[in-house]
Amino acid sequence: MPKFYIQTYGCQMNVYESGVVRRVLSDAGFTETTDEHDADVLLMMTCSVRSHAEQRALGRLGTFRALRSERVGRVVGVLGCMAQRFADALVTDHRADIVVGPDEYLRLPELIARVQAGTTGLVATRQTSECYDAVMPRPDNPVSAFVTVMRGCDNYCTYCIVPHVKGRERSRPQASVMAEAVRHADSGVKDITLLGQNVLAYRDGTRRFPDLLRAVASALPRVRIRFLTSHPRDLDSSLLETMQRLPNVCPSLHLPVQSGSNPILERMNRGYTREEYLAKVALCREVLPEVCLTTDVLVGFPSETEADFKATLDLIEQVQFDFAYMFRFSFRPGTRAGEFRPKVSEADGGRRLARLIEVQNRITAESNRGMLNKELELLIEGPSPRDTGWLGRTVTNKIVIVKGRCAPGDKVRCRVTRINGWTPVAELPARAAATVTG
Ligand code: SF4
Question: What residues make up the domain containing 112?
Answer without folding.
Answer: 3-124
